[in-house]
Amino acid sequence: MSEWVLLLGGSTGHGAATAKRLSRDGYGVIAFHFDRGDAKKIAEATIAEVNKITKGRCHYFNTNATSEDTMDKFIPKIKEITKGKPLKLLLHSIAFGTTTNFFGEKPVTQRQMDMTVHVMGNSLLYWTQKLYDSELLASGSRVIGLTSEGNYLAMEGYGPVSVAKVAMEAIIRQIGWELGELGITANAVQAGITPTRALTKITEKWEEWVESTKRRNPMRRTTTPEDVAGTISMLLMAEADFINCSIIYCDGGESRSGTF
Ligand SMILES: NC(=O)c1ccc[n+]([C@@H]2O[C@H](COP(=O)([O-])OP(=O)(O)OC[C@H]3O[C@@H](n4cnc5c(N)ncnc54)[C@H](O)[C@@H]3O)[C@@H](O)[C@H]2O)c1
Fold first, then answer.
1. Distance from CA of residue 147 to its chain's centroid?
2. Which of 23, 30, 102, 238 has the smallest set of CB atoms within 10 Å of its CB?
3. pLDDT reading at 259 higher than 80
4. Strand 4-8 and strand 28-33: pairing?
5. Which parts of 148-184 are beta strand (E)?
6. 103-140 pLDDT, tens digit each
7. Spacing, Cα 181 to ligand 1 middle (Å)
8. What was the pLDDT predicted at 21?
9. Is the dihedral of CA 190, 196, 201, 202 positive or negative?
């Protein structure tokens, strides 16, 4: 099987931890990120570390991975990098969207909804279609996306992302249903609340969310990007070949614990 993984959003948070973990597991890493300013500094540190672990078997591209032009431009490059071998993993770990309510001071617009659902949901479908057409997905390949409890709960500012998560889950289910007979699986990993850059963008009250999550979570802590990276690493094992069209919870039981 292939020794390469493709991470969409591999510079910070869950994607960065996954890049480091899968590097240590022996995979070469191809990743996209879209960072400016402070985020770019974090990205540079991640890239340096992954580069070191993989001994140079690492390619990071700082560009908008959700545009069709990017997909068409970079897929031939990806094929060159893997020498035509299919990828072990396509991971969607992109966080970029509008975080506002549907009503009130700044009601979400159609443009913001369309952008958020495309970036955080539908773009995974177009990547999967194009990689499949380029024979970069084959038996043993995994398609994984990250979802959250916001896929079935309403919360402050999360409406547009929530819609994107539901779209992504439906896309994943359908990919796994259509490609399962070829040995290609698709699953979502549902992470608990994780203090990452993305969380700070959802609400100004993110620190309060973290504290209340620690109380609510049966394991009395928030999720870490390393927890999620470990779950993804596990899902790449041959023992996970038959896990398909599923949501795997990596949240210490948070989503099963009532609020108080
Ligand atoms: N943080 C949480 O509490 C939490 C919980 C559950 C699920 N998730 C999901 O995990 C995923 C990753 O989020 P995170 O918390 O690690 O956030 P993060 O902000 O740390 O990481 C986001 C990544 O997306 C990249 N990115 C953003 N726009 C991009 C674009 N257009 N093209 C290419 N790359 C782009 C960034 O460069 C970065 O690598 C998201 O789908 C998020 O919804 C997060």
1. 8
2. 238
3. no
4. parallel
5. none
6. 999 999 999 999 999 999 999 999 999 999 999 999 99
7. 30
8. 98
9. positive
Tell me, in angstroms, the distance from the centre of ligand 1 to residue 198's CA: 6
User: Nearest to residue 149, comparing CAs of 27, 249, 25?
Assistant: 249
| Closest residue by CA, ligand 1 atom 42 | 95
What single-letter amino acid sits at 46? Answer: T
pLDDT digits (tens, 9 = 90+) for 164-219: 999 999 999 999 999 999 999 999 999 999 999 998 888 888 999 999 999 999 99
**Structure tokens, 12:** 């910070």
**Separation of CA 16 and ligand 1 centre (Å):** 10
* Other beta carbons within 10 Å of 199: 18
Pocket lined around ligand 1, Cβ cut-off 6 Å: 8-15, 32-35, 64-66, 93-96, 119-120, 146, 148, 191, 193-194, 196-199
Between the CA of 93 and the centroid of ligand 1 the distance, in Å, is: 5
Instruction: Identify any residues that bridge with 28 across adjacent strands, giving them in sequence order.
Output: 4
Q: Is the pTM of this model over 0.90?
A: yes
